[in-house]
Hints:
By secondary structure, the chain is an alpha+beta fold.
Amino acid sequence: MNSLTKETVDELLAAMDTYKAIAQELIDKLILETDQPEKSEIIKGDYYLISNAELLNGNEYLTGNWYFDVHGEHCMFENVETGQQLEVSLGNIDDVGNVDPYFFYNFLKSTDHFKHLIQYFKNPFDDMLNLFEILAKRKVLIHIHGVVYRKIF
């Protein structure tokens, strides 16, 4: 990993905020625009119940041209026009802000506003994980499990 300035770290932390905001918007969109069998529980925050349900609008994608694929404890969102990608943790409402080194790198790489930040990570997974571990020691991120972290707000 290249040396990061305070400004670059601040920009990466802002990218985490943006990631979480977009992730929550997409989860809300998925809940509203699909025929989720357990919608009332999901609305209360039980996101682990979200499934690959049919779209209510009969279209191929969520509004805004978002493809989604629920798999295991994640949902992959990809904008078919821009290529922006978010792999969102499903569990409960707090898990939406979880970041995995590889998935967060892909978010940066696929987001025009943050694409320039990937230049600091020669080994995307290892370098990003190293940054997460440093930020956890500084009490900026909290370690959730495995390689998953969450920004402390």
